[in-house]
């Protein structure tokens, strides 16, 4: 396959994964990232969605994972859910100043997830896309504009190397079911998240950037149920198809009953990956 394939889970801190359900009996919580990063090649970092993290946290996550491990970073809900992408210049600066640049070469794509109530608005989207930094150097420059919500002593506004950045968008409103939306993503180099939600939200299946981004939220309901062998065979075929020409990131979010990490390992095995 021409592109790199990274398979993982959406987050790694779940009580239901403990006591032998996925994490070995007796494994202390502070070693859970270390454990899961030896079984898969990437995870989505969810804490960044709920609140601004600290540079020290990002540095700790880097130290706990192998050198070739990659984090996808979920954009802050203050930007996507509360502001709904409106007037987000300063919130974006705060987000990029919060420590994400400390991930350095382990920084993968940014995931921007819109809430179900947010309808398609091409002008709002285009304005947001134009604000997004496309390199770590641009991100550091943007981070300098953070406000008092993120004090200087908590901010990281420098980067050691200038690396390209990728962005993916997940949508959940039926008005996005239009070819115009896909054209807008392509024009800005933003990946459309192929999101399987057991029929809960509209399903969009297209590749709009130089990488593909897949999220599997559950085969029975949101966050519930293990994918069947036939379903994983299907998704393995899709990943192979995408990977012929580009990198692929795939994450399982069916976390409620600890299915996600097991399904990630099963999908990796189908693709001939070491799990």
Automatic annotation (TrEMBL):
Gene3D superfamilies, A to Z: Protein of unknown function UPF0759 (3.20.20.410)
One family name in Pfam for this protein: DUF72
Name this polypeptide is given: DUF72 domain-containing protein
Coiled-coil parts of chain: none
Organism: Saccharothrix yanglingensis
Transmembrane segments: none
């Amino acid at each position: 396959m021409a592109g790199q394939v990274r398979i993982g889970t959406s987050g790694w801190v779940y009580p239901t994964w403990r006591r032998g359900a996925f994490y070995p009996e007796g494994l202390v919580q502070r070693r859970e990232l270390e454990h899961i990063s030896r079984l898969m090649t990437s995870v989505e970092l969810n804490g960044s969605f709920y609140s601004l993290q600290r540079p020290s946290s990002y540095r700790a996550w880097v130290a706990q994972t192998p050198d070739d491990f990659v984090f996808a970073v979920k954009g802050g809900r203050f930007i996507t859910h509360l502001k709904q992408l409106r007037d987000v210049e300063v919130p974006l600066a705060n987000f990029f100043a919060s420590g994400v640049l400390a991930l350095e070469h382990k920084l993968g794509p940014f995931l921007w997830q819109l809430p179900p109530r947010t309808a398609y608005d091409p002008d709002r989207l285009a304005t947001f896309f134009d604000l997004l930094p496309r390199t770590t150097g641009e991100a550091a420059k943007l981070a300098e504009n953070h406000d008092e919500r993120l004090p200087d002593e908590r901010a990281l506004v420098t980067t050691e190397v200038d690396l390209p950045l990728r962005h993916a968008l997940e949508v959940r409103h039926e008005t996005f079911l239009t070819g115009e939306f896909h054209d807008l993503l392509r024009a800005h180099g933003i990946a459309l998240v192929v999101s399987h939600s057991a029929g809960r939200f509209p399903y969009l299946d297209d590749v709009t950037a130089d990488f593909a981004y897949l999220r599997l939220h559950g085969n029975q309901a949101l966050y519930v149920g293990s994918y069947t062998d036939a379903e994983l065979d299907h998704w393995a075929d899709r990943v192979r198809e995408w990977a012929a020409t580009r990198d692929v990131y795939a994450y399982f979010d069916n976390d409620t009953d600890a299915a996600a990490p097991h399904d990630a390992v099963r999908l990796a095995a189908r693709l001939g990956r070491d799990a």
